[in-house]
Design brief:
By secondary structure, this protein is mainly α. The chain has 16 helices and 2 strands. Among the domains are: 126 residues, Orthogonal Bundle (Endonuclease Iii, domain 2); 126 residues, Orthogonal Bundle (Endonuclease III, domain 1), CATH 1.10.340.30. Pfam families: HHH (PF00633), HhH-GPD (PF00730).
Amino acid sequence: MSLRRSNRIVRLPTSSSPIRSKYFTPKIKKEQDIEEIPEIKEIPEIKEEIIDNNIQIVETVIKKKEEQDVLPIRSPKRRKTPKPSVKVEIESNPIPKNFHDIYNHVKTMRSKIITPVDTMGCANIPKTINQESPITQKIYRFQLLVSLMLSSQTKDEVNYQAMTKMRNYFINEAGFKDGITIESMLWIDEIKLDELIYSVGFHKRKSGYLKKTAEILQNQFQSDIPNTLEGLISLPGVGPKMAFLTLQEGWNLNLGIGVDTHVHRLSKQWGWVPKTVKDPEITRKELEKWMPKEYWKEINPLLVGFGQSICLPRGRRCDLCSLSSTKLCSNVDRGLLRKVGKLTPEELEIMNKSIRGDISNLKDIEDLV
């Protein structure tokens, strides 16, 4: 047996030479095979704000990228690292599929009829009662605000009578040539004012509101109507609906939709807002999420007139509505349609006399379909 082992040269491991054993034999890659992992820079938080009218501020935060060390080693090919997108888009609610069809049908029907809102609505009362003696735009704005304040829980016809009675008293008995003005409202006694508007709903409360409003306008707004939403809502008895309509008609500022009981009811009926909504103010916010701004001003008188004459809360006239024959409305009174089909022309004429407004031009509903 050879003893050459004792003559073998044993080399001790150094820091530059790895230990070799049968249990651990690390594989060393060549320098050219190792891809240098690019340093990943911290992605800062990026915020962008977009404000669109009455839409609340929307913020998007791009979070810091995690697990930076979990990147695979690939062949040395140039990789394109996508840049984080910082563009923020507000996804508005989609327009209901039936909106344009219903809107066009209602607009066509409204062009054939004259309803109370067309001549005795708040925006038209100052023009109607002052036909013989035109008023300035400043006086128009005040009379517009007064008619809106009186309109709550009151029909247009009753509101028109109250405004006419006030105007005649101020001109004929008090000597104010322009009738209803801030000066005449400051002059009149609250008890007498309450007597003049006795026919409107909540007349006692409204007479106090009118007196206080006249004082505020004189002291804080240079005897004119505020041209801001905040200024109008600060007046006693003035809510968002009145404020938006005043801005639209008085200042030509289209900042929101005036939602009254008819707009609120019909919007739920046609599925434009959830049927569970009970507050007209919530209906306004829901409509403004998707309705194009070009409709914001005309939607109120359009639906108010339609709700006054054709689609009433009770006793709706589906036989005169093209939405029933085109199946665009799911709330059709089938019993009424059968009843009208059995009426004689004379009986139908008597039935039509109860309608608020003139529907004489709405003769053949089939022509509108």
